Amino acid sequence: ACPESTFIRTLVTDLVLYKNETLIMDMEAGIEHLGRATARGVDVMVAVLEPGKRSVDCVNSVLRMAADIGIRRILLVGNKITGPEDEAYLRSAFPDYGFIGMIPYSQSIRGADRDGVNVLDMIDEPVRAEFEKIYHAILEVKP
After folding, report:
1. Which of 59, 124, 141, 142 is the least buried, fewest Cβ under 10 Å from its Cβ?
2. Rounded to whole angstroms, what are the CA distances from 61 to 14, 25, 86?
3. Which residues contact 129 (CB under 8 A, 6 or more apart)?
4. Which contacts (CB < 8 Å, 24+ apart) does range 83-87 have?
5. Cα-Cα-Cα-Cα dihedral of 117, 141, 82, 64, to 10°?
6. pLDDT tens for residues 32-86?
7. pTM of the model
8. Half-sphere exposure for 54 (CA within 13 Å, toward CB)
């Protein structure tokens, strides 16, 4: 992934740091992009996590590494939430962070991914409302 990381780092540097453009990147889960500093210079990072120990541990690593490269604003989104217990688990794991959304587990999202179709064309109204809530929360973040 080294050539890809170099390309992404160069792209981010050019668009964000030199041209002051808005760039939204959906990066691979995990911490590699932080270790290689491909995320350096971003204003806000959105970390999406599931209600499980491995996901919580990964996001804890992301938070530490993001701070090391100067990313100070991190927004959290819960994903595949099956009930109040999942939401409570995530909130208790990150009491100092506000979650901007909790995406419920959805067969329509799973089916859209399986079938390779646009998720937004397949989701039901409650899930769409949660995506819109997250979208608006991101827009409200001041640079």
Report:
1. 142
2. 27, 19, 20
3. none
4. 85/51, 86/51, 87/51
5. 100
6. 555 555 555 677 888 999 999 999 998 998 888 888 878 888 899 999 999 999 9
7. 0.79
8. 2
